[in-house]
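The passage that follows is intended for readers who have already worked through the single-chain material. We present the inputs for a multi-component assembly, then the predicted structure in tokenized form, and finally a short commentary. You are encouraged to pause after the input and sketch how you expect the pieces to fit together before reading on.
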Amino acid sequence: MTSFNAHLATLRAHFKIIFTYRGMMLIQAVRLLLLPLVLAAAWLSIQKTAENPYSDADYLLYYLLVPVILNLTDSRLVFRFPMAVRDGSLSRELLKPFPPLSGYALESIANNLIQLIYLLPFTLLAGYAISDRLQLGHLNLQLLLYMLLAIVLGGLVRMLISGSISLVGFWLEDVTTLNLILNGGIWALLGGMIVPVATFPQHIRCIAEMLPYRYMLSFPIEIVTGRLSQAQILQGFAVTIFWSLLFALIMRLIWKRGLKVYAAYGG
Amino acid sequence: MTQTINEVAIVTRQLSRSFSIRQKSEGLAASLRNFFSPVYKTVNAVCDLEMSIGRGEIIGFLGPNGAGKTTTLKMLSGLLVPSGGSIEVLGFTPFNRDHDFLKSISLVMGQKQNLWWDLPPVETFEIHRRIYGLSDEQYRTRIDELVEMLEISDCLETQTRKLSLGQRMRCELAVSLLHQPSILFLDEPTIGLDILMQKKIRSFLLDYHRRFKPTILLTSHYMDDVAALAQRVIVINYGRKIFDGRLRDLTDRMRPEKIMTVIINNGEFPCQLRDGCRLIHQEGQLYRFLVRREVVGELAACLYNTGQIADLTIEDAPLEEIIGQLFTDNGAAAASAPAKTP
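Having made your guess, compare it with the prediction:
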């Protein structure tokens, strides 16, 4: 109970801090909206091949939801933690009877949730504006609940991958490039940012379905489009849980080793 | 909880910590060489440090910059893993970061902050209350006490970043003491503060110690802090312990003489100087002597008996001077040597 209260108090504190940075949040929201808008426009304007299962309505729904899912599964851990190692502010967290990484993770979660203040109205308004071009007749409560669960699991696996990369900050002064390779470029491609995973050629789609990236963005939206069977959805959850457990283990191992080399510089 | 000074709070045995630091000469060619073949230098920050500190003691932990004080504090608080030797703090091995251990300690660093920069201190207090699992009653009682003792009622609801250094430092102390730690590590708690604020902090720490008897390990470059607070001092240099004992013993050993300043009414100096008295300065009727402690009383009595004294002061050499002398090689040898009996 103490631990739950402590986590709740920390989350609340991050909410309060983020509210003081409204301008920054707005800029972030614009960043999140810009690329999906461009991609949606691009996909709607090109001639689709016969093998492409996505219609214009699917693309519209897909890129309408991308900013929201992108935001909800985002993780700032990879930027915050290495900085805390470098400037020694990690020491402050290590001295408390509270899991140090939880603080950074809660900061990220608070940031993602508050960002919805900007993103949700835009998404709802945009959705209303193009409602005649969207196909939502298949939507039901079960699909929405599946989507919610997929977002939570997708956020978890992204947090754990980000966390694992960020912990390399115990050894490397800057993990930005490592993050760009493992969690940026590959994620944008295989996660469904540039091209929806469902429209990949069969053999690439198989690879994407085995890797964790799809589950951080594409999978929750694929659920809403109604193109996945119950079995495919459950299989997706199983893959996400597998990767989450694997990266949780990796994080734990790196954490233990990293603490031994932590030099607590700065003061 | 009853605590006695005989219980041991901190023990270190042959505690050592070294760092491997990458070296680089000046210039592009050196940078290129270093890129392909980096050169590392091992720096021994702490070497074979042995110390034992009782519960409730206040220890002044002294040394020049780079002596290994902060490294030692970081090892004692579990932030750093020792390269060698062992540590026990309240029976815990700090680096294991046991929950109960972390609940029993606090580290206040004058140059680092525990307060949340963007929130008022009262919000940080609330988070600490949750993290340390304090009940409503415990929280209310302690916060009221600390606010009163530290006189911070007027700054609790101001954003931390907008507080003055003195206000912030007092709030830092409050948040660090909220869970009533058994061990308090204070690293330069008065650094950068003005004289008045330094006095306030010292007086608060004394009062707090009197009430709650935590073990305090204090590092400070302000000798007034050490003189006012520490019952015992441990001095280290180049990572090695060079003195462990009462401050009084250290000053006696390093400076066996006192400084006696006398202003006489008129005429010649009225007393015969004996062995152990050395005139170091004279200006008109003002005389300043270095006088061995064992003959101070005799000379003072003689001066009073003549009835010619306008003023007389007897003082120790400034502590800064004594500590400064200690950090020279000769000083370290003197401090480590067995004490002379008067």
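Commentary: Chain B touches chain A at residues 19, 70, 74, 77-81, 95, 97, 99, 102-103, 105-107, 109, 111-114, 116, 118-119, 123, 126-127, 129-133, 187 (CB under 8 Å). DSSP finds twelve helices and 13 strands in chain B. How closely did your sketch match?
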